[in-house]
């Protein structure tokens, strides 16, 4: 007797692929910002988890922060290639294990990065291995993050443009900054 096919194997049935296909992506044009990409990896299960890292306290920047696996684009790399390479380097996610759905809205950081989040689905229960730059791999369920009281504040850019900032306090971790901004879009606009 053969196992039933997993409906998430069919991209046309995956609610995240459908959601991504129905929305218009908002790219940024920031020529003086350094290009980077992150992998927003959701487990392929009815109640998906998202792969996040706690960055090592030994790193020169962003130490101790919660982040998606990711980093700067190398010469000639696309955001998808960079996100998959960085996820392999940081959490041992084999590039072939990620089913890339597409790119989310670009975001920027105050320290000069123009980041493209790449949305992908990965098998549930996949064994991940952290690199020395990662203190811990955490995989909160999206349903738990949605249920949290989101903390919101507004900051202003030098020209006066207001920018919303979000914080998600999850099991002793403070998820904030660019990571929380991308999560906020997923949690408030993505499929339930």
Automatic annotation (TrEMBL):
InterPro entries with a match to the protein in the record: CoAse (IPR045121), Nudix_hydrolase (IPR020476), NUDIX_hydrolase-like_dom_sf (IPR015797), NUDIX_hydrolase_CS (IPR020084), NUDIX_hydrolase_dom (IPR000086)
Enzyme nomenclature, EC number: 3.6.1.55
Record flagged with keyword Magnesium: yes
CDD domains found in the cross-reference section: NUDIX_CoAse_Nudt7
Enzyme superclass (EC): hydrolase
Occurrences of domain Nudix hydrolase (ranges): 33-162
Pfam (any one): NUDIX
Molecular function GO terms recorded: 8-oxo-7,8-dihydrodeoxyguanosine triphosphate pyrophosphatase activity
Keywords of the record: Hydrolase, Magnesium, Manganese, Metal-binding
Required co-factors: Mg(2+); Mn(2+)
Family membership noted in the UniProt record: Belongs to the Nudix hydrolase family.
Protein name: NUDIX hydrolase
């Amino acid at each position: 007797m053969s196992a039933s096919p997993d409906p998430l194997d069919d991209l046309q049935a995956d609610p995240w692929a459908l959601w991504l296909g129905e929305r218009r992506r908002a790219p940024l044009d920031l020529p003086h910002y350094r290009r980077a990409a992150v992998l927003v990896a959701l487990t392929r299960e009815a109640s998906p988890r998202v792969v996040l890292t706690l960055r090592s306290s030994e790193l020169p920047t962003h130490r101790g922060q919660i982040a998606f696996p990711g980093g700067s684009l190398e010469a000639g790399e696309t955001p998808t290639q960079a996100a998959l390479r960085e996820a392999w380097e940081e959490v041992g996610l084999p590039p072939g294990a990620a089913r890339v759905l597409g790119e989310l809205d670009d975001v920027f950081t105050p320290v000069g990065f123009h980041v493209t989040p790449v949305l992908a689905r990965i098998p549930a229960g996949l064994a991940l291995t952290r690199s020395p730059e990662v203190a811990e791999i955490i995989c909160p369920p999206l349903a738990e993050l949605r249920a949290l009281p989101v903390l919101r504040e507004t900051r202003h850019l030098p020209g006066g443009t207001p920018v919303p900032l979000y914080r998600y306090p999850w099991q002793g971790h403070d998820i904030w900054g660019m990571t929380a901004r991308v999560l906020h879009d997923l949690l408030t606009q993505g499929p339930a």
